[in-house]
């Protein structure tokens, strides 16, 4: 799945109801320039919500109120009760920020969600096609009178976010005002409650410390919590009424020693931290990327504060030990079975136009549910064909759903949660005859995937320094993609696990890290391509140097052969592809046998036949060493 800041609120399939049905209309996006305005059925009326929010801004002397799309733990995935941006705007995309004044309401989001925003927002809202804080600050300076106060919930701002707003507002005579009680929550009268059950710990940093899981966040085994860890105390801030006696015993919650967990009310975290910081000789270490401003602003004076970009818990869990690596590989073998079942099924039913009771997303989730240790999907499946697949995070509606046919490309991005690992894989297929442009674009995306995967690099290299390898083949013909190239993956954790990946704020690669590799290409109103595999970083012996690394792919599903133009591939790329297919046969074949899936094994063997090396030779694409030796 494309990484943050490129991800998420994903989709269900284009297969709907009992058949491959399509619902089409002449217009799926709002039109606020006519009278009366045209609003599609996907729009939510936000008039009363805005009126109530503005009433609550007045006694606080707030001229503008900022509404981010995150939660108090700055999570990428959030629970329904934290979807404040969606409640206020109607927009369900995962990336965005809203600002409300007494006269205007505006949403900022990136290019993945522009169409979606126009389909979901009413005419109370304006759309700014940008996500930068500098753009929001520029708008605030122009719309808020000099001396006006700009309110925000400090629980929903990271330290970095606050500093960026502060810098961009600069000397404009506008001030940020921390409002710890969220104003949207006061308006949201039917806000979903916290689940009554569900702890079996966070958000993910707490999970790593206590080896516990929950279900407060959809698709993620997390629950609401904070931890303060000192040399002689462990404080766990949690909804204590949800803990069973067994869990309290597991946590040593009935004692007071350095290995005993002191249970604190989740809502008392600010008061308790303030009391702790007031002690003499205290110094507090925080990770600035994922500590909210509500906690940071309490750590005063500044000499009591020590910071790093990421907490030591995040950087430690980014590197999997031998056991974690082994079981995460095992999870991907079983997950491959489910994806192979989906692709084989679609290959049968789409060309025949067969009526089906399940959508593609439902089908692959059903297949995963039958695998050992399955705990459900790791995110909402993206299932899109034709022009819908050109939206990297397509989310279906009655108006936008379309029939799956042999005439269009189809993209499916899905993943599973298992007790031994988290998976995420994307495949793009065509059941008919692809155009030459589609085959070339797919092959160049595949080349990017291969070139990153086969790269050998020194330990400590940053992903950002090799990210262009995923784009080079596309750049050669003037193509590109607008999302990130990869993200970390957890062991029954989040499907997007920071701080691993190919972005500039990710930490350097070391052995034992898992990352996705997912270049793509999206042609507006036509088709979309993405190839996503998960890889583990492993040591690579070299002729002269030590401490070198490479990627070992653990996703084990073949690519669509009819979309691969082997004349564009180098001999080295074909050799890599054939070796990968041999690995699929070696690892997935026995699992298919064990599950008695003979038809699926035959499909896998057919689709992992080696490619002839003569294609590269016929095209004049030969390894460099062959030229030197001639």
Automatic annotation (TrEMBL):
Pfam families: Creatinase_N, Creatinase_N_2, Peptidase_M24, Peptidase_M24_C. Residues 327-537 form the Peptidase M24 domain. Residues 547-611 form the Peptidase M24 C-terminal domain. Keywords: Hydrolase, Metal-binding, Signal. Residues 1-21 form the signal peptide. One of its GO terms (molecular function) is metalloaminopeptidase activity. Residues 49-171 form the Creatinase N-terminal domain. It comes from the Eukaryota. PANTHER family: XAA-PRO AMINOPEPTIDASE 1, XAA-PRO AMINOPEPTIDASE 2. Belongs to the peptidase M24B family. This is X-prolyl aminopeptidase (aminopeptidase P) 2, membrane-bound. It comes from Takifugu rubripes. The gene is xpnpep2.
